[in-house]
Amino acid sequence: MAQQEDVFKKIVAHCKEYGFVFPSSDIYDGLGAVYDYGQNGVELKNNIKQYWWQSMVLLHENIVGIDAAIFMHPTTWKASGHVDAFNDPLIDNRDSKKRYRADVLIEDQLAKYDEKIQKEVDKAAKRFGDSFDEAQFRSTNARVMEYQQKRDALHERFSKALNDNNLEELRQIILDEEIVCPISGTRNWTEVRQFNLMFKTEVGSTAEGASTIYLRPETAQGIFVNYLNVQKTGRMKLPFGIAQIGKAFRNEIVARQFIFRMREFEQMEMQFFVKPGTELEWFSKWKQTRMAWHQALGFGAENYRFHDHDKLAHYANAATDIEFHMPFGFKEVEGIHSRTNFDLSQHAKYSGKKIEYFDPETNESYTPFVIETSIGVDRMFLSVMCHSYCEEQLENGETRVVLRLPAALAPVKLAVFPLTKKDGMPEKAQEIIKDLRFHFNCKYEEKDQIGKRYRRMDAIGCPYCVTVDQQTMVDNTVTLRDRDTMEQHRVNIADLRSIIEDKVSITSLLKKLI
Ligand code: ATP
User: Which residues fall within 8 angstroms of residue 251, CB to CB, at 6 or more apart?
Assistant: First the structure.
């Protein structure tokens, strides 16, 4: 675990050193849980967004996009339930003065039982070798059974407390499980309180009478309030989807773990409107479609899992998370929710408008049901970074840090170096870039020795480097170096585009999805 934390620290430092992510307002020592993306970060982030957008809007004839405003009519948030119920249960430790989410403390405790069980299983697997029967071991080993029993009991108690909104019981669980504050190490806990996560501000001058509005805590409501506009103007037939990428804001209680939990972040959400009664079938289809999108990046199926929700929101009839194996455990990256007709019905009620669909096949009107897929751009970014960061021991004893980014997501696709700054090599290198920059992102570098330039490109995940040398000036060939294998071979300048373009384009990823 300590080692994993070390790796995570290194990733955070790497993000800053190589222009991926900076603390917000860094010269003023940053602002809690707010971050800026640098010159390389913005490219990677844009590529992630493009991959998502195109997989939704290009690959599905029945999905269209919108871009709704961040500010919305305040009644939106009354109707959606956010004003009354968008709360997290918080608890403070009196000694460290640190604030925690009570539910997260208990979830971490559940994960600890899982870890203990896994440790026993791994130990036994080693001892018994090929003859090891894991299922039998789990159901007969006394220690494992005891951990499992404790875990199940805790799980049941926790789910019930959440469902009943029982804050006292949440606190009691924390006390009974002897959960300590990781900072102070004590169990000196306050009461558990509810805390609304929405940021408020005001529109209009006070003379006109200002009114309180909220920064949207999710982009989804911008889609629901536009359902009628899009359905009518696009003459959309069910089932159809509306996709949107945009900023969301939450006043998170615990803002740690870098860009995993931010107060200002970006979401990619798609609401898929379906005929009532077909929603669970669509829920299961979208689970598979979204998992395939993640796995096309090639990070290995073992690093993903579904986590079905224990506590369903009152409007949902199914919900799952796609979790990714981060250095700090399996964590939610995306949520997939079957939201019934709750949102549209609520907006119909609060706005007084009829928000329905006329089904030409059955000649009836009804409120569509909704399947939502909701993924955080920043969490996705973090998962890509965590999986790609690699410290490699080279044969000559040196270590190199390389970001093994999927080429289609890499901020820079090709770096072009003149071997030296003379004999027309810089001009030749610039010529190559002038031609290729229309097709993918290229970067020119002439400073430092060639080895150092390669390392810098490895560190930002650039998949290809080209070096212009004496021979280039004679026969128009260059050396092309591959980031991962570090192998180099000579190719004709005229062939560079055809060799590289296909591998670095978003299309290469999209093709894996169909
Ligand atoms: P969590 O339980 O981690 O607070 P959530 O279940 O509230 O997340 P949703 O409301 O389902 O999250 O939001 C959908 C997605 O938006 C999440 O899967 C996550 O990727 C992203 N997201 C939510 N909150 C944040 C945040 N504070 N910072 C960054 N991304 C976030």
Answer: 195, 196, 197, 198, 199, 263
